[in-house]
Amino acid sequence: MDRRGYQQYKQQSVGSMTPGELLLLLYDELVKRALMASIALDKKDFPAFEAAVDRCSDIVNYLDETLDRKYPISQDLSRMYEYFTYQLGRIKIGRNKQELERLRPMLADMRDAFHSAERSSGAQPGTGGQA
Fold first, then answer.
1. Is the pLDDT of residue 13 over 80?
2. How far apart are CA 82 and CA 90, in angstroms?
């Protein structure tokens, strides 16, 4: 497989996404990495566990840094992201499966909430934002 062609395809795909689609992509990756951390912890693969948790933290930090602070909900989201960052740190340090399993549904719920908001805004993929 030609890797350059694949890389170009990925760049074009991401470049043509709406902000809502990009947000959902980040949340999908966050949920996926949390699951990967859980699986790695079960297997006692601590380097993979730590890498997955670190990636989760990176994504949450990016989400927080890119918030548009002019909207009141941004303060609430920032506090939520701060909580996620704190919990991820505790999970990583303690290799705490119980806390990870408590956090994973919260991350999925946030993804689902943004997915619902994206759908209800009428910005369906491929419709150019029209309902």
1. no
2. 12
Rounded Cα distance, 49 and 60, in Å: 17
How would you write the chain as a 3-class SS string? CCHHHHHHHHHHHHHCCCHHHHHHHHHHHHHHHHHHHHHHHHCCCHHHHHHHHHHHHHHHHHHHHCCCCCCCHHHHHHHHHHHHHHHHHHHHHHCCHHHHHHHHHHHHHHHHHHHHHHHHCCCCCCCCCCC
pLDDT digits (tens, 9 = 90+) for 38-72: 999 999 999 999 999 999 999 999 999 999 999 99
Split at pLDDT 50, 70, 90, the class of 125 is very low
CA pair distance 103, 36, nearest whole angstrom:
13
Q: In the numeric block, which tokens belong to residue 63?
A: 């989400």
Tally the C-alpha atoms within 13 A of residue 52's C-alpha that lie toward its C-beta: 22
pLDDT in tens, 105-114: 999 999 999 8
What distance in Å separates the CA atoms of residue 125 and residue 131, rounded to the nearest whole number?
10
